Amino acid sequence: MAIPETILHELTQPYTLTGEQVDFYNTNRFIKLKQVLSPEAVAYFSTVISEQVARMNTVKTTIGERDTYGKAFLQLFNLWRENDAVCALIFSKRLGKIAADLMQVEGVRMYHDQALFKEGGGGITPWHADQYYWPLETDKTITAWIPLQETPLEMGPLEFSAGSHQIIEGRELAIGDESEQLIQQRLRVTDFKHVIEAFDLGEISFHSGWVFHRAGANTTGHMRRVMTIIYMDRDMRLKAPENKNQQNDWDTWCPGAQIGKIINSPINPVLYEPA
């Protein structure tokens, strides 16, 4: 399916952030931005990404046969390497500039992309912080969470604990039943606001690697289709892994990178920097 010229043009156009929005992100380490993508772009990428997920998905078990993590979503990685249309979205200057502007860095590069499709009847996504998995030297990381449809509360939109990047406790937990229980207990005794909101069509959220977040169950009969892009500072350096998951991420998403050096492998291209 050829990408319509109007959508290609849209992906090159800057989305202007206000100073207040940048300040909000830096305080809370997440932000939701409306009308980042047009309804036409969302509909187009919903189709092409859904088709690519169907081609790549190897999960054959029913939801009831899976553990909590498996019930949370179907998870496919680096679709940009498999599909030129998906690549156009992932390499979008529009989205990359938002990521760079929010983190206040000169440019951003790819960590990896990830489709997260929560099936109808799919379970919760437990509380967690993404950067537990990442062997990255600084916290200059950000994930674009791109719903491919309107996402009401019944579908399990992303939820945030605003400002919870300040909490160290819980960072050592992989996503699962334990992280859901222990992080939830910790957050209950803090003043961090738990933000649970629907996503409008074309609305995208951006969150940092250490902010705690989760998603509810999808209680509808429809797939909750989401594409994500994980960005890191263009000058991000690899750190020595602190757990087996970080070692696995080094091997998988930063092949050939060296500890203490900028992560500049063939699958970690720069996605945005000023011309």
From TrEMBL:
Entry's InterPro entries? Phytyl_CoA_dOase-like (IPR008775)
Residue span of the signal peptide, if any? none
Q: Which cofactor does it need?
A: Fe(2+)
As one GO molecular function, the record gives: iron ion binding
Taken from the record, one Pfam family name reads PhyH
In terms of Gene3D superfamilies, this protein maps to: q2cbj1_9rhob like domain (2.60.120.620)
- Keyword terms of this UniProt record: Dioxygenase, Oxidoreductase
Does the record bear Oxidoreductase in its keywords? yes
Q: Which domain of life is it from?
A: Bacteria
Protein name per Swiss-Prot or TrEMBL: Ectoine hydroxylase-related dioxygenase, phytanoyl-CoA dioxygenase (PhyH) family
Phylogenetic classification of the source organism: Bacteria, Pseudomonadati, Bacteroidota, Chitinophagia, Chitinophagales
